[in-house]
Amino acid sequence: MSVDDLFKPLALLHGPAMRNRFMLAPLTNQQSELDGFASEFDQDWIRQVAQGGYGLITTCATTVEAGGIAFARQLGIHRDEHLDGLTEMASSIRAGGGLSAVQLHHAGHRARPELGGIPSPASSHTLPGFKALTTEEVERIRDSFIAAAKRAEKAGFDGITIHGAFGWILSEFMSPFLNDRTDKYGGSVENRARLTIEVMQGIRRACGPDFQIGWRLSVERYGLRLEELREITAFILDRELIDYLDLALWDSAQIVQDGQYRGQSMLKVFTSIPRRGVRVGVAGKIMTAQRCAELLDQGCDFVLIARAGILQRDFPLQVKANPFYESVATPVPAQYLRSGGLSERFITHMRGWPSFVIPTSR
């Protein structure tokens, strides 16, 4: 396909279509207020990317419970009092012409006590001194995801994305390494996927018919098994429980190193699944216009822009103007990000990413 194909609309199962094939990936930025309220820096960031030409813009990981916090200055959606700031963010995205989604997040066993988090492991062996969640506590967290989705809808977002990646709680429950439960949320693949599926089904029931549901999935680390994740994904896509799947790969070109799918591209393992009306996209080192077009040829319906979107807030517009556009090489000086409009809080966060900001730069 050509770069022009990236600018064709993409219909979703529910609600309005994406105006093009660019989705802004959910980007942790640690620039909210300490109590989860959207800050002036959050609002400025959203206003910038809202004018950047994206088809859909996703917020950073946003806490569904106060105890599920993973990062200092993490955005929250666990209280009705958060709605004013979230409503402003949704309005900015709408004004720019894109669709909007809140990424719903709970850190699970990775919650940070020093930030007020309550580590919530699936298994008692994961963290010394912390017992596994009871069945009732798991159900409470499930309901917190659903309540957060209702808040997102009330704030004017077109949908939500469920964070099921990187060992956070939904990913944790999928892992046979981190989940040795004997209740209905542990044991078989079906039981370990139950929490994720109940969240999806609960949100679909609780929210309106046009509300969109995305799901972010990673396939590495934390004891996850690729073959199991493919099976779970096939079930979810066949029943159209979501509108779109966001494959969070560290590298969209990576090759499976072992197991049943050894030698195949990780992307092909999932794009080869019958998807019915569900759309599939990928994130991972997508830095050029030509790479975006290649990924459509490789079976993606859309691409998720992450680092390239931090470096250049209007990445889709740059691609539209130049089919051979390439992001600047990293690491970059902090002043480069600053002059582009990134806040000092965001820049401080990016200093923690390997090879993104020149360490000694001001």
UniProtKB/TrEMBL annotation:
<keyword id="KW-0285">Flavoprotein</keyword>
<dbReference type="GO" id="GO:0010181">
    <property type="term" value="F:FMN binding"/>
</dbReference>
<dbReference type="InterPro" id="IPR013785">
    <property type="entry name" value="Aldolase_TIM"/>
</dbReference>
<dbReference type="InterPro" id="IPR051799">
    <property type="entry name" value="NADH_flavin_oxidoreductase"/>
</dbReference>
<protein>
    <submittedName>
        <fullName>2,4-dienoyl-CoA reductase</fullName>
    </submittedName>
</protein>
<dbReference type="GO" id="GO:0016491">
    <property type="term" value="F:oxidoreductase activity"/>
</dbReference>
<dbReference type="InterPro" id="IPR001155">
    <property type="entry name" value="OxRdtase_FMN_N"/>
</dbReference>
<keyword id="KW-0560">Oxidoreductase</keyword>
<feature type="domain" description="NADH:flavin oxidoreductase/NADH oxidase N-terminal">
    <location>
        <begin position="5"/>
        <end position="321"/>
    </location>
</feature>
<dbReference type="Pfam" id="PF00724">
    <property type="entry name" value="Oxidored_FMN"/>
</dbReference>
